[in-house]
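Sample 1 of the test manifest.
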Amino acid sequence: MKVGILRFPGTNCEYDTQHAFTLLGCSTEIIWHQETSISDTINLLVIAGGFSYGDYLRSGAIARFSPIMKAVREYAASGKKILGICNGFQILTESHLLPGALKRNESLHFISQHHHLKVASDNNDFLRNVPTGTIVNIPIAHHDGNFYIDPESLQELYSNDQVLLHYCNEEGTLVNPNGSVDSIAGICNKEKTVFGLMPHPERAMESILGSNDGRRMLEGLLTT
Amino acid sequence: MKVLVNISLKAGVLDSQGKAVHHALDALKFDGVNDVRVGKQIVLQLDETDASSAKEQVTQMCESLLANTVIEDYEIEIVS
């Protein structure tokens, strides 16, 4: 299994992501945004977190027009899997590969903490190892994680099982750290091939660092 | 030609910055402020000299990059 990891100017989670997938036994390749193609040998493409282009204008807005993004759109259209973490999720919504948008956190603060999440649907590759209702502990670290979508599209997300994760407390009661519509932390596209979430599963790979719940999530993406 | 683009969150999309500024104005005893919305302004200098053609070009810029029309509205003002 080979994982491609996109790097834009300002991306800062590419090595964490590489470390996570190396732990899972994958080979990895970091792909610079000036590249114009994605190798056929890559089975999973990850858009890593960070602050692409300094978050100027809007988070993810400028990265969307990087040379590599044409290849990313083609890669998505071919039905191969893409995972966008944090800034990667923002880039995917700005690129319209995922619906909705990510606004400034309601508190206006940057939030960096471990957070509990509840799996809303395991009917997808990403969460196939983490049954619906499971509570996991995964770090969040973002300023613009306030997920917005209009009410009609929100209903569509639910009816297609596209809502993946909700923010919750340790007991599983939904809570809302950043103002997201319905406490949503992650979604996928209708085809269930493009996944986006604000929390960082690649930072939850080893219990000694607080949690290894990210491992089961990422493992789901490795089986074809 | 100078063109101003004013971008703000759509009505109905909660503007947290506007709310925070509103609270601060209240705290400073500026009474009678009913609502505050915080947006951003982008100032463009274009080679174009025809106003309607400039507006058309800037509309395309807004739709593709300057605004995220999922959450934002934009207004274009031709200055000179």
